[in-house]
């Protein structure tokens, strides 16, 4: 609008009316949003209560199955639950890794390597070490539980509120990331890498089952302890611990899977770590940014592809390699 027309518009009140109309529309939008929130509030609360009642009924069944002995639930229940979850989820990925089928799933593999599908003998080697680590974790569960008892934790049969569980899980994510990042950096010191961490890095193109394929010392130092610290510091309810261990199990299996499936969290960061060795030590990335251990990752194709995908088209086809990098 030129200056003369603008002056006329102001003089005739057009601009004032235009601004008033915009403000009126904004006010209407805000009012509609408020009405929508108020209208759905009862439904959300009902959904919240219903799901809470369902979870409570399922938790009561756990007590019926394992008895009212909290020691049994905290130690053996946690051990059994986490091991079963690990193997059930890993088995789906392992089937693809061994058979190379279905073909549409293999298209989502991050690294294209000549040694794929994976020889079954390699899977057996992985499986043996994973089982060893899982059984060696039993003393950790025992000691960890008794430390929780000494510290004091939520022993009520009733489940914690949604708000409390949610914020405790956020805290656990932060603590685990800090613990994992720095313990992982230590494991890359030459002495510890040579004698401990090198086992885990046998897989430059990892598979899901390799998530817990490592030296037992590493399993304690970098897997179990960082995951345990959050619930211990907060004195979390056993149910919250199980939810947290579920998140950790799914996360580590996906990060090591070697597949970037649609609707799943992107595993590009940790896959790049296995490929390049000295980059991307963390899971979330903020500590890598802080310490400058993501410089090469940010220059890579993996960084461009490190995003959630909601397309059935493989991410590497959505973000093809730059010819300049070839």
Automatic annotation (TrEMBL):
The chain crosses the membrane at residues 73-96, 131-153, 165-183, 225-245. One of its GO terms (cellular component) is membrane. It comes from the Eukaryota. Keywords: Membrane, Transmembrane, Transmembrane helix. It is found in: Membrane. Coiled coil: none annotated. Residues 170-293 form the Fatty acid hydroxylase domain. PANTHER family: STEROL DESATURASE. This is Fatty acid hydroxylase domain-containing protein 2. The gene is FAXDC2.
């Amino acid at each position: 609008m030129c200056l003369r027309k603008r002056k006329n518009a102001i003089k005739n009140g057009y601009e004032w009316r235009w601004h008033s109309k915009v403000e009126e529309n904004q006010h209407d939008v805000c009012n509609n949003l408020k009405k929508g929130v108020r209208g759905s509030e009862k439904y959300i609360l009902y959904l919240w209560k219903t799901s809470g009642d369902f979870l409570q009924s399922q938790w009561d069944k756990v007590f019926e199955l394992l008895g009212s002995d909290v020691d049994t639930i905290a130690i053996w229940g946690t051990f059994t639950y986490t091991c079963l979850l690990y193997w059930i989820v890993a088995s789906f990925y392992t089937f693809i890794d061994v058979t190379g089928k279905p073909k549409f799933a293999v298209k989502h593999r991050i690294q294209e390597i000549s040694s794929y599908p994976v020889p079954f003998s390699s899977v057996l080697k992985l499986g043996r070490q994973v089982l060893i680590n899982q059984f060696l974790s039993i003393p950790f569960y025992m000691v960890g539980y008794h430390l929780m008892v000494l510290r004091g934790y939520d022993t009520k049969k009733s489940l914690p509120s949604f708000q409390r569980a949610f914020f405790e899980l956020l805290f656990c994510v932060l603590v685990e990331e800090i613990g994992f990042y720095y313990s992982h950096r230590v494991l890359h010191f030459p002495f510890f890498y040579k004698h401990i961490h090198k086992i885990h890095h046998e897989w430059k193109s990892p598979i899901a089952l390799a998530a817990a394929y490592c030296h037992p010392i590493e399993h304690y130092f970098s897997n179990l302890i960082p995951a345990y610290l959050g619930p211990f510091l907060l004195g979390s309810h056993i149910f919250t611990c199980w939810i947290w261990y579920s998140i950790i199990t799914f996360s580590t299996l996906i990060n090591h899977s070697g597949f970037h499936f649609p609707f799943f969290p992107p595993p590009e960061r940790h896959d790049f770590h296995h490929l390049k060795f000295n980059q991307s030590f963390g899971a979330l990335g903020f500590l890598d940014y802080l310490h400058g251990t993501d410089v090469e990752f940010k220059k890579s194709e993996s960084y461009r592809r490190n995003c959630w995908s909601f397309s059935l088209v493989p991410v590497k086809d959505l973000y093809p390699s730059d010819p300049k990098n070839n």
